[in-house]
Design a protein that fits this description.
The chain has one domain (8-132). The protein is 33% helix and 22% strand. The chain is α+β, with helices and mostly antiparallel strands. The chain has a 5-stranded antiparallel β-sheet.
Length: 138
């Protein structure tokens, strides 16, 4: 039987969705990122989204759902009006090694608002640094 092969986007998802979910699980132990705490501290409405999908992996991004990107997975956190997100993205027709990582943040955290890198660890470090500047610690 021939081994199953995956498209670049599916392979990227299989690599990073669980990895980013594990990162979020680790951060959940350090910070109180629950919906209940966010609500108690003044976050309203649809900003109270789950941080990961039902399997505990990075969620599927809107640009992937609308077919603007071949792959987009993300984790994010919002407290009041402050927001930070970490995404992995791959454009259509690109190879896995052409994927990039995007950290976005509201202007109160980062005036630039957007950081793009091909280095996952660098993007993770920035995401954690920004998150730790406003998320309540346990």
């Amino acid at each position: 039987m021939k081994p199953k092969t995956y498209s670049p986007s599916a392979s990227l998802e299989r690599m990073f969705a669980p990895r980013m979910g594990s990162l979020q699980e680790r951060l959940n132990k350090e910070f109180d990122l629950t919906k209940e705490t966010a609500k108690r501290l003044g976050t309203k409405g649809n900003r109270l989204a789950k941080i990961t999908d039902r399997r505990g992996e990075a969620k599927t991004g809107g640009d992937m759902l609308t077919a603007n990107l071949a792959c987009q997975r993300y984790i994010s956190y919002t407290l009041r009006e402050t927001h930070v997100a970490l995404r992995v993205e791959l454009e259509h027709g690109k190879r896995i090694d052409e994927a990039y990582f995007v950290v976005t943040a509201t202007p109160d955290l980062s005036p630039a608002g957007r950081f793009v890198s091909t280095d996952y660890d660098q993007a993770v470090n920035l995401y954690v640094q920004l998150l730790s500047s406003f998320a309540p610690r346990r």
